[in-house]
């Protein structure tokens, strides 16, 4: 074992790590609920205003698409700094978990929307046309065909998105958001605490592997 | 029944369909043929209004689909069942759930729906596959499920877009037999989009050839094959290739012009001309319920052409001297289409 000058003893690690893990889970959980609630409709809107969609609308498609790209084009750290006034306006603070949720959601929503759009675009044209040709309303087509056939792709996208949000939550540690990232930066990096650093890394790797593994399993069970 | 008139579809400056007129009666299978890019798929998508035509009208049971609002169109579309190329089954639904889909859109009550789905699956011989997913079914079985789904709302028109493409000959034959059965028993008007001439000859009552967005030839299949020597006619009933060059001396092309050609014409013509007649290649088939034939023969004696023409004409057969070089190309091309199909 490598010896670190100021390392927290191994026995003291769990009491720091577990609360941080809880904070990360809470942050990612809240953000993902917002991301799904807003990203899914946004993805449906992007696809269905496209030429292949249920209500093609060139200018609406172009503008929604542009906004979605805007959210994805900034590095997360830059995005976080850019939206500080907005964050202050919405949650009333610019530090802590509450403050991290805003930039994380702004990054996650367009990302998820694109994943949803892609998943629907993968569906062969004849399958998308079946509903219309059978006299379905547009809402029925979305509910019974687009979402059903794209579900494996959407779940795969969800796993990808959760992993990205775990990563962003760690970056958000820089603004004191708490969680594993905060722990790694403030104890591990700033105070040269090797035990905390190693523990954070191991836990993050395990979480990401677990999320991806579960995602793949669910996707497989959804494909017939 | 369905009546398409002056149907035109343009994308910007590109005209994909240019004044299409055709109609299909109840209990009739009308084939639309043509090379890829001729506009067949666009025509199919216009007929059930998946694409809005630029101009023209589509009358189904007397109602013009192009004049309807979106809500009215939803209802009117139920009169047109669609069978898609490669079936278009939803991968995450079972065969039964796929067939039930149009009924769900109608909010049909559960019990009625279950019974109707059973009937439909039974109709296409797929009851024993009701709970299978599409990936567990063969191409032919998937197409049967697609047909059952197309029939779910008891349509008066069935639109089949390349329903046999990619299927082996045996499976193709069984799907076509099923189509003919539906035509005869349910009296649906079937619009059959295909590029396979065998399919047309086997099951269609009428045929329209589409080329560059226009119908270049159309008519009853039996008439087209018998009464003309057009490219479509030769493509429908091609003379198989033979080793003998067509312009060799004493080689003649024969085409059945009447439906009542005496099957013993070869012997009787040979006797009348006092010459052996050697069949080099040929195809005699029942097309649209009537006998049609096209052959290449060699007459083993130099005779005045007029005499030969007359002898065959008396038997309801049109005899022509060797094909011109461009006809040769046509025949070769149609043979290619056949072997590709």
Could you characterize what this model shows?
- The complex is a heterodimer of chains A (224) and B (341).
- By secondary structure, chain A is an all-alpha fold.
- Chain A has helices spanning 13-49, 58-73, 76-82, 84-91, 97-121, 125-133, 138-172, 179-189, 194-222.
- The mean pLDDT of chain A is 89.
- Chain B is an alpha/beta fold and 341 residues long.
- Helices cover 37% and strands 27% of the residues of chain B.
- Chain B contains twelve helices and 14 strands.
- Chain B has helices at residues 40-47, 70-77, 95-105, 110-123, 139-150, 169-186, 197-203, 221-227, 231-236, 265-273, 305-313, 325-340; strands spanning 2-11, 14-24, 29-33, 55-60, 63-64, 80-83, 157-161, 189-193, 206-211, 214-220, 251-256, 277-287, 290-299, 317-321.
- In chain B, the strands form three sheets. Chain B has a six-stranded mixed beta sheet with strand order 6-7-8-3-9-10, sandwiched between helices. In chain B, strands 2-1-4-5 form a four-stranded antiparallel beta sheet, with helices on one face.
- Chain B is elongated.
- The model of chain B has no long low-confidence stretch (mean pLDDT 87).
- Classes of the chains: A mainly alpha (224), B alpha/beta (341).
- The interface between A and B is medium-sized, with 22 and 31 residues.
Count every beta strand of chain B, where a strand is a DSSP E run of 2 or more residues. 14
Q: Quickly count the helices of chain A.
A: 9
- The separation of the N and C termini of chain B measures 29 Å
Alpha carbon gyration radius of chain A:
21 Å
Q: Per the principal axes of the C-alpha atoms, what is the gross shape of chain B? A: elongated
Query: Strands across the major sheet of chain B, in which order?
Result: 6-7-8-3-9-10
User: What shape does the CA trace of chain A take?
Assistant: elongated
Summing up helix and strand content along with how strands pair, one would put the structural category of chain B as: alpha/beta
Main sheet summary of chain A: none
Order of helices and strands of chain A: HHHHHHHHH
